[in-house]
Amino acid sequence: LAKSKETFKLSELQYLEATIQASYPTAPATASSSAAALKHRQPLNSYTVSRLIQDSATGSNLFRVEMEGNATITSIIGSNSWLQQRCDWIAQVVEEGESPHEMIEIMRTTLNPPKFSAVKWTLDYVRMMDTTRTLSDGQRNEAKKTRPSYTMKSILCSVAHAMPSQPTLDPETAKDRFLILDTSSRCYLLKCLQENVKQTSASPKSTFSKRWSKRPFQYSSAINVAVAEMVIEILSTLCSYQA
Question: pTM of the predicted model, to two decimals?
């Protein structure tokens, strides 16, 4: 699963970029690649992407990425700008259920120790509610009557108790970071792969943003740099498959 950055304005454009890059997955081109080879190169990093949720509070998209063939999450991140630059985090699904109660019961009965190989870990809670899910008046009234019987603290305690290894209070010493993702339809326990999406101060994106902010003519109606980056990435992906 991957959670995009918080923005209502660019949410749909983020979704468009993700679906287009998933439709044209390729290994990064090398300097020795010929024009013919680039035109007919095989999709080595094949995967599918679907949007599970558009969060009603932040505008963030929750994407599910399914790898195909020999693709790995590392290779997919390395060849797709939307995963590198548009996501707050990328995480592996450890367990999931239709509700927190079901997920915790699954953890207790079918727990796979290798998933929790880390000796020290941290656990956080994230809630996302789908803005695309429309409810009738009757469904909305019923939802109000059946509010969750748990709190953020109680679910964190219950999940932590069901995990076999020991947590740590110091995030700096943690080997893994786990997330409980609570949505309107499912509950997930995720192992965060955030090290794959961290950006350094020397990254091309941050360097370009600094140069853009120092441009000589800064009009209020000037193009949004984030929009420009996504449009260029979309066009670059499409043009790479043209004759």
Answer: 0.74
